[in-house]
Structure formats: structure tokens, C-alpha cells
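Page 42, continued from yesterday. The earlier attempt failed because a stray header line got pasted into the input along with the sequence. Redoing it now with the clean sequence only.
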Amino acid sequence: MASHVDASHGNEGHDFTTSDGWLTRTALLSRSIYWGIHASVLFVLWVGAPAWAVGLCAATYALRVFGITGVYHRYFAHRGYRTSRVFQFVLAWIGAMATQKGPLWWAGTHRRHHRYSDGPGDVHSPRDGFWYAHQGWVFDPRWGGTPNDLIKDFAKYPELRWLNEWHFLPPLSLAFVCWLIGGFTGMVWGYSVSTVLLWHATYCINSLAHVWGTRRYETGDDSRNNLLLALLTFGEGWHNNHHYYMASARNGFRWWEIDVTYYILRALAAVGLVWDLREPPASVVEGGTRRPTGLRKAA
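This time it went through. C-alpha cells are written below.
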């Protein structure tokens, strides 16, 4: 792994907290659980691969991919649409089921990524080593706490602060539901296999989407568009588009750029659960003459 920026670099002026749950603050335990979930995938050699279990894996993968892309990313990190306070918490719970910590930590950390994208202070840039960008950063103590100053707009909600601290409860509830559906086999496929696939699919946006693909826009970083990654992550692979105009609820700017997350959001908007989906202006889609940020100022 290539050397990366000094641990203190880029943290000046940021208000970090360790109130992200006891699990997060216990490094050895959290690492053991992380790699333990990876190892638990080997139980498929014992339980086999019944069609219903593979289907359960696909269903929990799809639900939680949306939890990351449509909720943690496009809603909490970039405020690409609006919703009610009640449904906001429902969405946050779905996002937390992905086993990628709480909504305030995830969104605040992602906002930091955009602030320093592929430069000193970026959370996960391949310029600091591909392995580091893919998953090594997860264990970097610099990013262990929620950057409160970057997520003030959502940190004002006590229920979100509670979920941010008890972020391991939604994954446990999902694992329990999978066990109720199909016993140990259901838990292996519906939670373990699904979670590992989900982790590495979303991690690929941090790593591969900054080194492999095409660039339509000049963004000042290495972000790229990649159809395969877009298919695996429900639209996040249109990463160069996203870095050019971050606030859009739609990452696939052109009609042929498949963006499943956006289609789901449109369906939720059709039934009134979300509204005010932000679209990229025509000037942005056509390329524009200047680089917009598209990021709303935090309240």
C-alpha cells in the first residue's frame, strides 16, 4: 500500500466525535467481526446453494444497495431529494442495514471525500494506494468518528444521532429476519454472502471508479464513468457525472445511462413518499463551461 497523507493533515478545524457506538470504538472487536463476516461466507460449502436462498441474497443485496446509494449517498450526503421525518428514519434504518455504520458518519465522511477528492485529506483516494481506497481506509483511525461540522443539517435529529450510535442494530435485525425465513442457510445467504458482495461492490466506487472508465467532465479529480460498476451499484458507477454535479438525485445523466436508484426514487416520488428530486440542469448535462459543485450548503 502506498503511503498516504499524514494522520493530522486535513483534520484542522473539523469537529470529530467518537459517539458512533461501542462497537466502532473497539478496534480489535470491529476488525474481528468484519473479517468474521467474510469468513462466514465459506459456510455456503456446507449449506449449499438452494434457489430460494440465492434469491434471498439477491433481495437483501438489492434492498441494501439502495440503502447506500439512494439513502446514505443521494439523500443524507447530498440532499438530492426531500422526504418526511418519519420516512427519513425508515430510510436511515434501511441504510444502516448495509453494515456500513450510521447515517451521520457515512454522509459526513462522504462529504469530506468530496471536499478533498483525490487530494490530501481525501478519505479514500487510489492515489494513496488501491487497497487503501478499496477498504484499508475503513480501519484508519482518522476516519473513525463522525465529522459533526460536516453533517450539522441531519445531526439535529435525535433519532438519527441515536441510530448513528446504535448502527449495529439494523444489521442484527436483518440477520435475524433471514434466520426466521430460512434458518442458518437463510442467514448465510441473506446476510453473510449478501453483505460481503455489497461491501465490495460499493467499495469499488471508491477504488475502481477513480481509475477505470471514461471521463466526460473535467472535475479536478480522477472520477470516471463505468457501466459495469453502474449496474452492480444501481447507478453509482456514473461517478464522473456525480462528481461534476453532486446534488442530483440522478447519476445517469443521459437516457441510456442505467440508474436503478433513480428509478426507485421516481417510484417513491410517484406515491408521495419522497419529493423534490433534484435533476441535473441541461447546461450540466451538455457539459457547461464551468465546474459546478452541486452541493447544497449545510443548514
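Notes: DSSP finds 14 helices and four strands in the chain.
Reminder to self: strip header lines before submitting.
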